[in-house]
Amino acid sequence: MSSNMRIIWCFILPFLILSFLSTSCKSDNSDEGKSEEELYFDDYKSPEALWGHIDTLGEIIIERRYDDLRPFNDGLAIANSKGKWGFISRDGKTVIPHRYRAAYPFKNGLARIQNFNKKYGFIDMEGNLVIPDTFNRVFDFDSGLARAQKGENYGFIDKNGNWVIEPRFKKCKNFENGFAIVYQYGKAALIDRSGKYIIRYSEGNDKILGILGEQVRLKKDSMGLLCSASNLRFSIINI
After folding, report:
1. Which of 204, 195, 202 is nearest to 227 (CA)?
2. Cα-Cα-Cα-Cα dihedral sign, residues 11, 14, 18, 24
3. How far apart are CA 205 and CA 14, in angstroms?
4. Short-list 180, 179, 185, CA closest to 202
5. Mind listing the domains of the chain with CATH numbers?
6. Angle at 30 between CA 24 and CA 32, to 5 degrees
7. What is the DSSP-derived secondary structure letter of residue 230?
8. Do residues 215 and 225 make contact, with C-beta atoms less than 8 angstroms apart?
9. 188 forms bridges with which residues in the sheet?
């Protein structure tokens, strides 16, 4: 290579490197400043096959125009329009606008929803947010309480969204006959509706198997036991 060419490349090469680095940085930072919703729709594509509803005779009652569609429950169906979930009536009218990242069927007048910040709350059948969407995860209400996750732990909330039992469990089940099985340290315990421990976390071969009516099924030293949670009386059973 001639000396003139070397001189030319000494001037050109730095510009090429700077141009490449600038383009790379722009590409790497292209998502900066975007909301969770914008990031979600960057990768979202509507399916080619759209969904509708037919009746038992095969007659179309709702035209195929939704990205996804679920069965009717309490007179409403969850429908996905262009990536957002909402609720429609049996005549295909939008009752609750398509604005959620996820939505679930109504139960006892309330439905779980997830916003585009990946937080959960509850709406009523008019679409009003009655329990703020601030939870990491929620489950349907059962016996007046709902399991909810805040941070890494679970607790129980009432229908006003207040903590009845603070989130301190790694896992928990619904209340049944006034008692719920909760998990911590890889072990199970039993609590009442105030959060008081009825049976502490099991040790060794002890294991809480489940709630059977008003009694708790236990395994202790390879024996099956039924425990009346109200008075902690046991009887031996076969398991």
Report:
1. 202
2. positive
3. 70
4. 185
5. 36-135 (2.40.128)
6. 125
7. T
8. no
9. 183
- Segment 189-211 shows an average pLDDT of 77
Which pair of tokens denotes residue 86?
A: 């909402």
Segment 71-100 shows an average pLDDT of 96
pLDDT given for residue 9 in this prediction:
46
What element of type H or E holds 79?
Answer: strand 76-81
pTM over 0.85: no
Q: Confidence band (pLDDT; 50, 70, 90) for 214?
A: low
Q: How many CB atoms lie within 10 A of CB 230?
A: 13
**How remote is the C-alpha of 96 from its chain's centroid?**
19
Residues 6+ apart with CB under 8 A from 134: 119, 121
| Position with higher pLDDT, 177 vs 84 | 84
The helix/strand/coil state of 3 is: helix
Nearest to 228 by CA among 202, 193, 188, 190: 190
In Å, what is the CA distance from 193 to each residue of 32, 97, 202?
45, 36, 20
Residue 227 tokens, joined: 């425990």
The two three-digit tokens of residue 17, written as one number: 């490197």
Strongest mean pLDDT among 6-20, 27-41, 138-152: 138-152
